[in-house]
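Students often ask why we bother encoding 3D structure as a string. The short answer is that it lets us treat folding as translation between two languages. Here is a chain of 197 residues written in the first language.
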Amino acid sequence: MAKRTAQQTAPTQTDNEAGLDQTLSDAGSSASDFMKKYRFHSLALLVALVATTALYVGVISINEAGLTRHNADLWNFIMSPAAQEYHNVTIEQLDALAAEARDSESDRFVLKSIGEYLFSLVEASSVDGATEKPNAISADVARTKALAIADEALNRFGDDNDMVTWASGVKAKLENTGDAPWLPKSPDFTLPSPTGS
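And here it is in the second language, the structure alphabet:
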């Protein structure tokens, strides 16, 4: 038996390249055959993927636009320095903003912001010597609307501890105005006696 040399047993580099070329050619050929056979299915899958991606991006864009609009409206109506100074917002505008934000991601934030604003109007009107701004919502209307918003928050978001805590606190402060520590103390006053003594 003759010994084989290393050169005889090892494949040459050109043999390896030819084998690789044949493997790649076979893979390309089978992929081409697959695409010819399932061309319609592959195209339908690609169209469905593109349509789903476009729909997802569209929904996200619309949602982001809504959040931005709600934040801008809150800023313009109640949070900006000009809004804080002039109080030109009406109850109807606040109701429209709350209705527009309903069932969106900003729903809770909008409700709390409007409720806090109305509560601040009630609170500001109870300070000694405070006068209502000419364009501001009256304290009575603000109190009634803030209570309604707190009730709505309790009814709609009963499973959200943050909203329940906030709404319960607002209701407690507004319903118990006589015992509320945040109101100024009433002065001690006694009627003079009719006899003059």
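Translate back mentally: The longest helix spans residues 39-79. Keep this in mind for the problem set.
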